[in-house]
Amino acid sequence: MPVADPTLRVERSLLKSGARYVIGCDEVGRGAIAGPVAVGVSVVEAGVRAIPTGLRDSKLLSEKRREELAPVAAAWVRFSAVGMADAEEVDRLGIMAALGLAGKRALIAVHEAGVGIHESVVLLDGKHDWLTVALTKPPRVQTVVKADRDCASVAAASVIAKVQRDRLMIDADAFHPGYGWPGNKGYGSADHFAAIESLGPSPLHRHTWLKQPALI
Q: What reaction gets catalysed by this protein (predicted)?
């Protein structure tokens, strides 16, 4: 069954109910064993233009199509940003706190760009609000299951964050070669685990996530 295009139905309802901005928010890299976790945000407001053709949740797009759509999505929204928490922070803080830290960094960039955070509603993919607890004075956060699939602002955030994180992991091959970063982007695979067994963990690895005792 074909996947329906994302819409602005939820965003327009929130804008109509009084929000000045809606900030679509999604995470990337949560399940990886290496590299940062990234949180993308994209800001829309009343009068937002038609959704870019082909925009989807990043997981539903090929790598080539994500690369094509990322700049289009960034130009479509009022502002976008990606916050990251690195592997050391994931190990030290735990994944949920690291997600919150990355989200906080993305929202700081939004604030510094002149978007009123407390005039906004953050539309967060999923059913668990891991963002509010990370913020001293949080805006309203509304969780929506499958928002990355159904809500265009969140789909845009997903694509933008995925492309930025993927590029970082591809570039890491020049500094920490041998792990197959261009192919695995830090996610676990048989070849990736074989490389860790041969070379040992790199500084990019989340050491607490390496389940094989000999690799810790």
A: Endonucleolytic cleavage to 5'-phosphomonoester
For the whole prediction, is pTM greater than 0.90? yes
- Which pLDDT tens digit goes with each residue over 59-110? 999 999 999 999 999 999 999 999 999 999 999 999 999 999 999 999 999 9
**Fold exhibited by the domain 9-168:** Nucleotidyltransferase; domain 5 (3.30.420)
Binding annotation for a divalent metal cation: 26-27, 125
Q: What is the 3-state secondary structure (H, E, C) of 35-79?
A: CCEEEEEEEEECCCCCCCCCCCCHHHCCHHHHHHHHHHHHHHCCE
- Residue numbers in the known binding site are 26-27, 125
Report pLDDT digits (tens) over 113-148.
999 999 999 999 999 999 999 999 999 999 999 999
Domain ranges of the chain: 9-168
